[in-house]
Design goal:
alpha+beta; two-stranded antiparallel sheet; 68 residues; elongated; single chain
């Protein structure tokens, strides 16, 4: 999806795209919930931020992969 670039950049985006493409070629589908807990770790300037850094850790332990 072209929307992926809204959520990841650089190496993270490249890795995500490669992984999804490999799954598609192999006919693998991931089912189940993922949990994200984003936290703002900095906002500059504080009064009207134009640069916001977010830290997140995705939990995919509730998912499973199946051959579609």
């Amino acid at each position: 999806s072209p929307d992926l670039a809204r959520y990841a950049t650089g190496n993270a985006l490249d890795q995500l795209v490669r992984s999804l493409q490999a799954d598609e070629v192999q006919g693998i589908v991931t089912k189940g919930p993922t949990v994200n807990r984003p936290v703002v770790i900095s906002a500059i300037p504080t009064s009207d931020p134009t640069d916001v850094r977010i830290q997140d850790c995705g939990d995919d332990s509730g998912t499973h992969r199946i051959t579609g």
